């Protein structure tokens, strides 16, 4: 099943801090994210191109669902702890909402 809206997030992590960040993300963010956003589509780290980047993807049926679930995440009482502990590891964050599309047949 292809979800029409994908939240495509890219975090640039401080040099040599990826493992520490991933531990914090798994321990503090993932319980909240699974409860509020559901199951992720995937997690990735950069291999070629810009380095020290952590990418995660979450799918939604609609923009309204994205907004509703994001609100649940942002107001969850345990999410603030993750934000505080992860702050020293994150250099930059990009959030993109991308849409599924179909290409015309040749």
From TrEMBL:
* Domain NIPSNAP positions: 8-101
Q: Which family does it belong to?
A: Belongs to the NipSnap family.
Q: What lineage does UniProt assign to this protein's organism?
A: Bacteria, Pseudomonadati, Pseudomonadota, Gammaproteobacteria, Enterobacterales
Looking up InterPro entries in the UniProt record yields: Dimeric_a/b-barrel (IPR011008), NIPSNAP (IPR012577), NipSnap_domain (IPR051557)
Task: Note the Gene3D superfamilies from the entry.
Answer: 3.30.70.100
- Protein name as it appears in the record: NIPSNAP family protein
């Amino acid at each position: 099943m292809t979800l029409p809206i994908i939240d495509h997030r890219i975090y640039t992590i401080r040099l040599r801090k990826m493992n520490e960040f991933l531990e914090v993300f798994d321990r503090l963010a993932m319980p909240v994210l699974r409860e509020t956003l559901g199951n992720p589509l995937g997690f990735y780290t950069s291999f070629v191109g810009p380095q020290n980047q952590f990418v995660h993807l979450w799918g939604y049926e609609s923009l309204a669902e994205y907004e509703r679930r994001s609100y649940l995440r942002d107001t969850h009482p345990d999410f603030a702890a993750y934000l505080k502990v992860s702050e020293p590891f994150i250099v930059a964050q990009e959030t993109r909402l991308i849409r599924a599309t179909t290409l015309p047949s040749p």
